[in-house]
Amino acid sequence: KEAILVAKPIVYVTRRLPNEIISELTEKYQVKMWEEEEMPVPRDVLKKEIAEADAVLSMLTDTFDEELLNMASRLKVIANLAVGFDNIDVKACEARGITVTNTPDVLTDTTADLTFGLLLATARRIPESVDVIRKDEWKTWSPYMMAGSDVHHKTIGIVGMGSIGEAVAKRATGFDMNILYHNRNRKPEAEEKLGARYVSIDELLAQSDFVVSMTPLTEETKGMFDARAFDRMRKSAFFINASRGGVMNEADLYQAIKEEKIQGAGLDVFENEPIKSDHPLVQLDRVVALPHIGSATVETRNRMAMLCVENLKRVLDGMEPLTPVKV
Ligand code: DGY
């Protein structure tokens, strides 16, 4: 009898991932990988690879639009290593029978921890204070040196009450905070469990000491934190963004802080990433800027990567993925 050689399906991984993750794939699939860790795969390389791939394990830095998807003749699944999927035209994927998956739940607590840490760091001026010692500027203890703002017993306003928003609210209960939220739909369980109060976006902006964006980037949320929104906030308030840079207008935010319409901001995400140190926003003392590290712990990144692996295996085996994205 003649042996029939069946080519293994091709999985393209758009960034270098640890061997333990990749070895989960190599038995059944031919794995190709963009070997860089700190540089996204260039568009022209991705175009070439996607033409041959049956599955892609992608990063939020890769844009999957019509142009790219038109080159994907055999692609069945894009497993995105993020809960957010604004980098992918999901409708265009649906039209082509390509399944999109994301990584919800496994990163919820980790991202909420970082968000709350960013809020604390911003209010209590922790990075500025670290710099005082690093730069040898500490002359003596003094009563108002690096005096920040209290967090406990203040009002937090969470915009986007998905599971990460709820996990941030849970942390806020430990600080005896008054919790407001705004969301597409009300969350009665969160109201009951966390004592969170649903309010309109304008009321949230007007009442909160900390306005925290946990909302995904969509057509509706794009640029929602703009001059009008910052004008409605308290002069003493802080804006915290740990969701997506595209929900805020950075030029308006800069202006609002500069003109002391609000007190400061804690930002883990930016309109254009990576933001550079000479960007006017990052130069402001009362801005704490982080390089998009919301879910960046080794444990969580491993869980996210394994969930991507499981999702793409399932789709290639003709099964429902664990966490499909639906629009
Ligand atoms: C996500 O999962 O969408 C985060 O932004 C990545 O940490």
UniProtKB/TrEMBL annotation:
Signal peptide: none annotated. Residues 116-294 form the D-isomer specific 2-hydroxyacid dehydrogenase NAD-binding domain. Residues 11-325 form the D-isomer specific 2-hydroxyacid dehydrogenase catalytic domain. Keywords: Oxidoreductase. InterPro entries: D-isomer_2-hydroxyacid_DH, D-isomer_2_OHA_DH_cat_dom, D-isomer_DH_CS, D-isomer_DH_CS1, D-isomer_DH_NAD-bd. PROSITE patterns: D_2_HYDROXYACID_DH_1 (PS00065), D_2_HYDROXYACID_DH_3 (PS00671). Belongs to the D-isomer specific 2-hydroxyacid dehydrogenase family. This is D-glycerate dehydrogenase. It comes from Allobacillus halotolerans.
